Amino acid sequence: MKKIRAAITGINAWVPEYRLTNEELSKMVDTSDEWIMQRVGIKERRILKGEGLASSHLGAQAVKGLLEKTNTKPEEIDLLICSTVTPDRLFPATANIISYKCKINNAFSFDLNAACSGFLFALQTGASYVESGRYKKVVIVGCDKMSSITDYTDRTTCTLFGDGGGAVLFEPTYEEYGIMDHLFHTDGAGSKFLHMKGGGSLRPASHETVDAKEHFIYQEGQSVFRFAVKNMAAVAVEMMKRNNLKSEDIAWLVPHQANLRIIDATGKRMGLPPEKVMINIKYYGNTTSATIPLCLWEYEKELKKGDVLILAAFGGGFTWGAIYLKWAYDPK
What is the CA radius of gyration of the chain? Predict the structure, then answer.
């Protein structure tokens, strides 16, 4: 019997209208457009503004558009997984709220948190449900309102992050499309370099934690950069080797959008020319769980059925990994 594979049959994303430019940031903190562009390659980032709007709004907007694009009824969805580091609340799961907002009422749903690698981890988790043969339509959402945990007086982090959401639809196929292989890693020793100190059971919210700004992103930039350059490239190359893929076999590298220098280093290590690397960090910044679906959404018209894609990411934790994917449909 042929193996069931999980194929992406639709992609959609959504970003807020408000653009926070480098020029505006330079009025808030000691930085400049030149400084930011040289170090990370970001020109602007989208910021979600409005009373009562959180990560679920970003995710729900992406999912509603996905259902419409793919002519899928909400009641047809079997499972929804949301990757996020900025849940609306600690509980219930943001996935539950997104399902409610999208009238997805025949599915179960849950959140997954693996920092910036979360969307890849969620993809493989969702694919496993499809590959089991029990689920026909699975939605994977990546959404983060990073502005909610960004300290806009800290120039080492406030230049990096933006808000956004993206979603894909998985369906089963017996053809050689969809997720072909995955390779994931974690190393908890890296948590000291990239984390949010307050807000969990270790450091519950208090006057002390709020006054100490412990509810914002903390990052030791150089340590994270060195780790990311080495390991995101290494895992992508390892994926190529174990599947006997050469650079000419790969249509696209779809990298997590954290830093342009890290993206460039990964592409070069894989032997890929710049035109085979999806990049949109300049206009969105690091949207954490949303960066990879945002790339797929923006480049969708350039993707062809059978294209070989390598998706690669790294994140706090540390987490890192790669997915080997064969694209399942032509531009619509």
Answer: 19
